[in-house]
Design a protein that fits this description.
Layout lengths: L2 E4 L2 E2 L7 H7 L4 H11 L5 E5 H14 L8 H7 L5 H19 L4 E7 L9
Helix pairs in contact: 1-2, 2-3, 3-5
């Protein structure tokens, strides 16, 4: 696991698993692929046009369930040491931060900081 810094802002720990979120909810295929690429950034910098960042982030945020009930079992299976509500909350918070930061610029930059590798806090 790595910490994602988006426009210099450290995102919540589970932001590095937004690709999992995109894989388990109903989003367009291009959004799922975009988040797969978004999270593969450990030790490197990445960028994308802000319109693309906002579009994919808004699609995933809208697709996330309002409560963990419908995806709780999947989350418990993938992350057995963490509460599904905590994971879902961090995903929502991450996406909201990304959308807000992306609205302030034309090109967005992020970095996967693997110097801070640690297990997510429950």
């Amino acid at each position: 696991m790595h910490v994602i810094k988006f426009e210099g802002v450290r995102l919540p720990t589970f932001a590095s698993f937004l690709d999992v979120a995109a894989a388990i909810v109903d989003v367009p295929e291009d959004t799922a692929k975009w988040f797969w690429r978004f999270t593969i950034c450990a030790g490197r910098r990445a960028d994308s046009p802000s319109g693309e960042v906002r579009r994919h982030s808004q699609a995933l945020l809208a697709a996330l369930p309002t409560s963990d009930g419908s995806i709780a079992d999947m989350l418990r299976e993938r992350f057995p040491d963490y509460e599904p509500a905590h994971i879902l909350g961090e995903w929502r918070s991450s996406l909201q931060q990304i959308i807000e930061l992306a609205s302030e610029r034309e090109i967005c930059h992020w970095y996967g900081d693997d110097s801070e590798i640690k297990r997510p806090s429950a």
